[in-house]
Amino acid sequence: MAKVLCVLFDDPKDGFPTSYARDDLPRIDSYPGGQTTPTPQGIDFTPGQLLGSVSGELGLRSFLESRGHTLVVTSDKDGADSVFDRELPDADIVISQPFWPAYLTPERIAVAKRLKLAVTAGIGSDHVDLDAAIAHGITVAEVTYSNSISVAEHVVMMILSQVRNYLPAHRTVLEGGWEVADCVARAYDLEGMHVGSVAAGRIGLAVARRLAPFGVTLHYTDRHRLPADVEAELGLVFHPTVEDMLPHCDVVTVNVPLHPETEGLFDDELIAGMKRGTYLINTARARICDEGAVQRALESGQLAGYAGDVWYPQPAPADHPWRTMPHHGMTPHISGATLSAQARYAAGTREILESWLDGTPIRDEYLIVRGGALAGTGAHSYSAGATAAKR
Ligand code: NDP
Q1: 205 lines ligand 1 (CB under 6 A)
Q2: How high is the mean pLDDT of the chain?
Q3: What is the pTM of this model?
Q4: Could you state, in order of their start, the residue ranges of all structural domains in the chain?
C-alpha cells in the first residue's frame, strides 16, 4: 500500500468555502490540438469547488483510502522540521502544485528512500530537481495542458492592465479620487504594438491567438519553428533568438520552461537590448528573470512595467523586492489555479495515480521523467543538466 504525501496551499483565511460565486463550470472535453482533458475512471469532487487547498485534498482522499492507501495532506513544506520533511522519508508518492511548491531538492530526494513518483498537480516541474529524480529512478509527471489556457488568459489580462495603466487607475477609485490626468499619464492602447513571445508552446501560442484580434504584430522565438500555416494565420514573425526579437517588441511575454538554457535569461544585458519602455510579462518562472535586473530596469524606465505571478521562492517573503518595485502588476502564483483549472488538474492527478497504482502506462504527454531519463513532454521541453530545485 502506498503512502501519498500531498502538499497544498492553505485554506482561505475565512475558512473553507461553503458556497461559490458560480454554480457550474463550462464543459471542456479537449484542448487545442485535440488532446483530451483528463479521463480518470471517476472523480469524488464537484468541479468548481476549491480543490487545491488543504481541505480540498485535490478530491483524492476517498479514492486513495478506499484502495487502502494512506493520504497525508499538509501546507507545511519549508523550514526546519516541516511536516513535509517529517513525512517524506517513507512516502511513496509526492504531489504538489507549482503555486505552493514542495521543493524536491537533491538533499530531500536522498532521504526519500521509498519515493517513486512525484506528481505536479498543474504544469511546470522545475520544483523537482530533475537530475536527482533521474539519478534515483523517480518518475515525474504533470498534468500537461490542464491550465495552459488559464495562464494564457492571465497573460492577456496582465498585458492589457499594464499597457492601459489599469491597476493605478483602479486604486484611484478605491481611494475616493478622480485624478484623470494621473491615471492616463501612463496609459496607452495596445493596438498597433508589437508583442513578442519567448516560446510558442501551448501557452505562448494560446496567448498569440488571443492577442491577434487586438490589431498587434505578433513575434516569437522558439527552439522549433511553428508550421507555416500557423505563422501565416496569425501573422507571426519568427526570430531565431530572443536577442533578435526583443528590439522589435513593445510587449514581451515569457512562456518558456525554466531549465538551464533559460535560467537568468533576462539579465541586465538582455534587458538593455529591449526598446525603452517595454512591458515584460512573466508567468513562466521567476528565475528566468534576474530579480535585481528587473527592479533596476523599472526604476530606470528601461521597462515601463513588469507583471506576472511567479516568484522565487514561493511563497515570496514579505520583503521581496518585487512587492514594492515601481510599475509592477504582480499577483501571487494564481494564473493556473482558477477553480476551472483546479477541476482539470485534480482530475489529471487522479488519472496519473490510477495509472500508477494499476500498473498501466501514464499518458506520454504527462511524463517529464521516467526510467532514469527525460521522457514524454519532459524530453521535448526540458534540457538535462543542473535543474532547478534549490530548496
Ligand atoms: P510547452 O512545453 O507547451 O511549451 C514550452 C515551449 O518552450 C516549447 O515550444 C519549447 O520548445 C520552448 N522552449 C524550451 N526551451 C526553450 C529555449 N531555450 N528557447 C526557446 N524556446 C524554448 O509549455 P507550456 O506552454 O504549457 O508552459 C510553459 C511554461 O509555463 C511551463 O514550463 C511553466 O513553467 C509555465 N507555467 C506557468 C503556470 C502558472 O500558473 N503561472 C502554469 C502552467 C505553466 P520546443 O518544444 O519547440 O522544443
Answers
A1: no
A2: 96
A3: 0.95
A4: 3-146+337-381, 148-323
